[in-house]
Amino acid sequence: MKELAGWPREDANVILIIEIILMSLFLTMNTADLALQSRGVAHYTPTAPFWITNHFTGIFTSLSDGTLMGVERGCWWLHIIGVFFFLNYLPYSKHFHIILAFPNAYYSKLIPQGKVKNMPEIQNEVLYMMEPDKAPAATAEQPEHKRFGAKDVTDLSWKNLLDAYSCTECGRCTSVCPANMTGKKLSPRKIMMDTRDRLEEVGKNINANKAFKDDGKSLLNDYITVEELRACTTCQACVEACPVMIDPLAIIVELRRNLVMEDSNAPQEWNLMFGNIENNMAPWKFSPDDRDAWVNG
After folding, report:
1. How far apart are CA 112 and CA 150, in angstroms?
2. Mutual angle of helices 158-166 and 97-106, in 10-degree steps
3. Could you tell me if 194 and 188 are in contact, meaning their C-beta atoms sit under 8 angstroms apart?
4. 248-261 and 158-166 helices cross at what angle (nearest 10)?
5. HEC states along 151-200?
């Protein structure tokens, strides 16, 4: 759980302390209110007993009515101020997921899990290779460069970035990840946290320079390593386990696409398979004429 060290743990402790203070103020306010009700003080209309604070009214028996009213009003105002402080702190905290979890679930994928979105550019290239007559006429215009996959957060979709900010850091995705369970470096939770951290860094860069200034870093390699990406089995376990419909696999797939298609960075076994698909239109080394030979091989 190295990804929880530092700021994530400090942030969680700050949130926990704020919640304890707010609830303590709320319970103290109710206890004082009940004590004032029992004394028949004006403007404190009797209510039904509270399940918890009803047992603690004896704490305030020695206080005068004026002091008790000060405690009740003071707790009320401190609680309201604390709530407003908490709402302002939310956007800077991982608890921003309280606000983003609902739209993130609403915009989650409706397609069957495990279905990977194809890249039209690559599909067209294969189509033109197989059926040259369908290729568009050549033009003198230089085609606009399009990055294959994603190397940095600016290459990811808005839904990927919304996923990162919706992460509750609960760790359910990592706990069911077969790669993580077998001791590999991959942690889907870390993938989401790294994406959010890099996005925060890019945002600060833009705020400081009025536009993004190349800082020599990227999400791929500087935050998420090749070892982590290759450990993923694309089993969808992390996607199914997430309570707010986050899809860490979508980010992993885009980063791996960039590794393979732009950096030619793939294990030798993958390269052999890619070569067979390109030459034989199948993952096996047999030619299309011997397509059934693999059964007996």
Report:
1. 23
2. 140
3. no
4. 130
5. CCHHHCCHHHHHHHHHCCCCCHHHHHCHHHHCCCCCCHHHHHHHHHHHHH
User: Residue for token digits 């956007």?
Assistant: 91
What percent of the chain is modeled with pLDDT above 70? 95
Amino acid at 27: L
Token duo for residue 67: 């002091």
CB 102 within 8 A of CB 110: no
- Taking alpha carbons only, the member of 55, 59, 81 closest to residue 68 is 59
Q: Please identify which residue in the block is written with the tokens 């209309």.
A: 45
Q: Which pTM was predicted?
A: 0.78
Which residue matches tokens 């206080």?
63
Could you give the count of Cα atoms lying within 13 Å of 104 in the half-sphere of its Cβ? 22
Measure the CA–CA gap between 250 and 150, rounded to whole angstroms. 10
Each residue of 66-100: pLDDT tens digit? Answer: 898 899 899 999 999 999 999 898 888 888 888 89
First to last CA, the chain: 45
